[in-house]
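Deliverable D5.2: sample structural annotation.
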Amino acid sequence: MLREEAVRSAISAGAEEAEAFELLTRQVSIRIEEGRVKTASSVRLVGLGVRASIGRKLGFAFATNPSSGEETGKEAAENARAAPEDPDFGGLPDAQRVEYMAELMDPKLRDLDLSDAASMFLAAVQSARISDKIVSISGELEVSFSKVAIYSSRGVDVAEERTYLSAYIETASKDGDRRGSGFGFADGRRLDMFDPEKVGREAGELAIRTLDATTIGVEELPVILQPKAQFTIIPFLVGEAANAENLQYGRSFLTGRLGDRIAREEVSIVDDGRIPWLPGSSSFDGEGVPTRRTHVVEDGVFRSPIHNWYTATKEGTRSTGNAFRGHTSPPSISHHTVSIEAPKLLMSKDELLDVRRGVLVVYTMDRPNLATGEFSGMAETAFLIENGEVTRSLRQTGMGFRLEDFLKNMDAVGDDVESLMGFRGGSVRARIKVAGPGAR
């Protein structure tokens, strides 16, 4: 096997320790523009990434579609010999017992061929055509089957198979001078987590709803962020702000804040790498360390960063199983699936909307500032709430808040739970400042 060849080669070339990450993957991709298939491809790839150490020196090398692991292992050892010493490097990861998950590989998704995938995705496109006011439909579908394996001279020897699907539909609408847009999205490790008709219909319906638009001025209002408006915000707190590397280098606004209250007492924020069938789940991380459930924020208090082996060793603690990597780079740190847990604040959708005047945010792509925790961005898709009813779409609406203040001011969490892009949760409500060009 490539990984074993690479490790043996690195040790033979003078490395004291060596580790190989091997990836075999098949990916099907389909892109649609103007309602028609623009591109369709099926790619098979073998990747190999090798780390080798000599004392406190660490070297890395990688290869794509190699015929053997010998050259890559030798190159990693040579790179280690030439590398500067790192006083914080405490060695490669030890072997640990891994409890393998069964809910990571779906045979139906694994065996999906290009023509079947195209037919399925075109069904989503057709479902988006709910009106002659829909003037454009585009999107992308990606399906992959991967075998991931890690082998090291320290006894790590783990391997598993995983499937993944991601589907996105974007729509545009027009009615005279009025224009709108919509989207639908789904991801997961199982084929039936993608309902083509549902994704397409949601994209079409949202495009029609956003035709009837208005604007507001500067106001402080109850704002409801739906799940699709949170995946760039709440996971950011875990994957970036509570990332041990960012904390150790002083890049995060949470640096030096361990043990501080950063959310209201009823709120906990968890990173979980073992939720069945979610894309963020796996039996082990990018270093072969078992994944786990980590309370990053517990009862409002910042309790734990997320670590890979390097940052954990540097602090004299243990890895949280949050090492992420491909074959072309050494491990970094990222979240698995982030959830807000606040059972005392749980409300139904109707209860969440029970405000005299507010804003419902469906989607935003903006992120908080890592150094300050401040969010200043656009609500790309948002609606006005009047007397408990969602009324007109809002255009050119910005939002501004400190992430910590948002978590402390949160007064409700919805039961409309969705899982997407490393986030799992329902809508949340907090009073924040919104700003538009003025009422119209």
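Annotation notes: Residues 256-336 form one domain. Residues 114-128 form the longest helix (15 residues).
The annotation will be released with the project's public dataset once the embargo ends.
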